[in-house]
Amino acid sequence: MIEILPEEIDRQMDWISSISDKEGKGTTRLLYSESWVKAQNSLKELFEKDGMKVEFDEVGNMFATIEGSESPETIIASGSHVDTVVDGGRLDGQLGIMAAYMAMKALVDEYGQPKKSLRIVSMAEEEGSRFPYAFWGSKNIFGIAKKEDVENISDNKEVPFETAMTEAGFGYLTGAPRFNNFDAFIELHIEQGNFLENSGKKVGIVNAIVGQKRYTVKLNGEANHAGTTLMKYRKDVVESYARIVTEVIDKANEIGDPLVVTFGHAEVTPNVVNVVPGEIEFSIDTRHTDQKALNEFAEYIEKVIQKHADAKGIQAELNLWMDEQPVPMDQEIVSVLENVCDQNGLNYQVMHSGAGHDSQIFAPRVPTAMIFVPSIKGISHNPEEHTEAVDIVQGVQALAEALKELAY
Amino acid sequence: MIEILPEEIDRQMDWISSISDKEGKGTTRLLYSESWVKAQNSLKELFEKDGMKVEFDEVGNMFATIEGSESPETIIASGSHVDTVVDGGRLDGQLGIMAAYMAMKALVDEYGQPKKSLRIVSMAEEEGSRFPYAFWGSKNIFGIAKKEDVENISDNKEVPFETAMTEAGFGYLTGAPRFNNFDAFIELHIEQGNFLENSGKKVGIVNAIVGQKRYTVKLNGEANHAGTTLMKYRKDVVESYARIVTEVIDKANEIGDPLVVTFGHAEVTPNVVNVVPGEIEFSIDTRHTDQKALNEFAEYIEKVIQKHADAKGIQAELNLWMDEQPVPMDQEIVSVLENVCDQNGLNYQVMHSGAGHDSQIFAPRVPTAMIFVPSIKGISHNPEEHTEAVDIVQGVQALAEALKELAY
């Protein structure tokens, strides 16, 4: 089996994660920022030193290629996004780039030139953290990002998207995409959950990324004096909210994994101790790997909300503002990953991803799979995000073995 | 029956409610503000013009007395508080002062000097709206306000309580209270609820003011990624909150009137769509006219919270920061009120008060009762607070007839 040393993982991650807009633990590297430009250029230098051919597309996605000896036009790729959230960790995104680099370097060191081309992809943006737009990198690879979605948006310092982009030396995609031909793409990423940690597994082979629906719900009842309004005369929106949350979570538990539902956000009005609440706005986020199951649960949620609103003469307004389909991974690559894990005694588990990733943009277009490595306590998007290098090794080995299987 | 004209009510309320810190509808008259000083002085002038003897105590409570012919030391009083909340209405508090004036003036016009003394009480403060201290007026009448509770508090413009008080020409109570001898006190007030409006009654005879308990509850669970954390691994505080609210409100409905419970305030942390909420702080306000029933319900609430916290491994922290006892009104005065309503064909209902009033400070110390007049839609503490004068008339008549019964 390809040898990957924990010290090497730490060395690479210490180096790349230190290229940050902020000092201290973790990484802040927003799209087109100074440290973003520095990271892409530093990676270019590193990859070129190893003899790879480095190219950028118009928006700033970077591709580093080790040409194949027999079928150089066949591209076996791996990578992830180079941007982070504000006060992000040292792993989210950038680990996938460095893992691809370490795996490919180890392969070439061990086996020489591949038959098919190996390609590292360092994508411009995934997080939507600087500007209100996510997947700018992967969507541009496939030519599906729309100019009109970003031309009027700015960051929180009022810097327009276009200004940031051109100052970083990039621009809009012109003509057809040039880097959208992949015969295989494997993204390695931290799990950002606690499933692997809880189950003691070191490698997660992702077979699907969940679909998700997000709602904003407004209930309009009647604000009243908390002392002088008898219970029977109330239109208490917090009561209705509580009944909805309870009933929907009970149903989700009954249906079971992988369905999840979260009521993460709530604003009560007037939000005063001695006033019966007259208005509430709250969020619902629900996810499932199966489209039919997700649709059925969303229908159930909508019915429950209407039922409780009607029972109290409360007005309910639902806004379904996100409706992403589940994305199955390529079953052939998933099988390759299972096989190499089995053959090399790697401690793996086939699982789904509850979070979105660049791979969900790739998967409907090219054969795609993902490898998860554990996240300590599932903490992510936080400087405390961490995984011990010894718990990352098996994931990088699985990646290397799969790339070997596919490209040699 | 004593005649009270709706036009006279409107004339008096238009006049007094226009003395405000702000232009426009409603009244803003904060303790010791310019308009507060003007209101007390204008009332003094009005009452003196009618031959009453007007006195202030040290803190600014005002007492206007029509001396009795036979037993002048026996005081039959009526009144309310002269302050309002910010952007308050034209009735809350001040109607009780003007109703006392109109009733006593009508009595003297019709029947001449009373046998016992009649006294209007215009109290300095009840709302706790400028400074974080309520019942400053009534508590000083009985010498139970504590200097240490106000000497370090300021308003939201950083004006210390003491500075505001001395600039208005007042100070702390010195020596024993001088105006605490009442043989009867009747406070007329708007209901601030919709019970009278819904039942079509014009006069509420209050037999008790509810006791109330207020809690702040903090639940500490675990914030987690909304996609990657399976339902079974969650410590979702919004789920626990929803179960608590549902169960407590179900129980309150089962127990029935006059028990009320309100979850008016809630703050979720981090309050983000795609994060399982890790913390919530929420309020509980529960009220009942019976101490035992209130205590039992509070015990029930505490158990329900603990049960749901334990079920999820969530930490619950309860802070009972208000615990006011129910205050029964004087049954003799209540009977007098019932009798005069019966005799004069007034459309009344014996009821409880779900809100706190100056009368709850009086009632444990002197024979006290309250009269409610309707509030349109129960709206109060709002410039839209309103009651048509025709719907106030019967309340003022009931007050006048009861004062006649007690003082003549």
UniProtKB/TrEMBL annotation, chains A, B:
Matches recorded under InterPro entries: Amidase_Cbmase, Bact_exopeptidase_dim_dom, Peptidase_M20
Gene3D superfamilies linked to this entry: 3.30.70.360, Zn peptidases
Asked if Hydrolase is a keyword of the record, the answer is yes
Keyword ATP-binding listed = no
Q: Which UniProt keywords apply?
A: Hydrolase
User: Its Gene Ontology molecular function terms?
Assistant: allantoate deiminase activity
> Which residues does UniProt assign to the signal peptide?
none
**Documented EC number(s):** 3.5.3.9
Q: Which family does it belong to?
A: Belongs to the peptidase M20 family.
Q: Which NCBIfam families match?
A: hydantase, PRK09290.1-1, PRK09290.1-5
**PANTHER family, from UniProt?**
ALLANTOATE AMIDOHYDROLASE (PTHR32494:SF5), ALLANTOATE DEIMINASE-RELATED (PTHR32494)
Q: What name is this protein filed under?
A: Allantoate deiminase
Organism whose genome encodes this protein:
Facklamia lactis
> Which gene underlies this protein?
allC
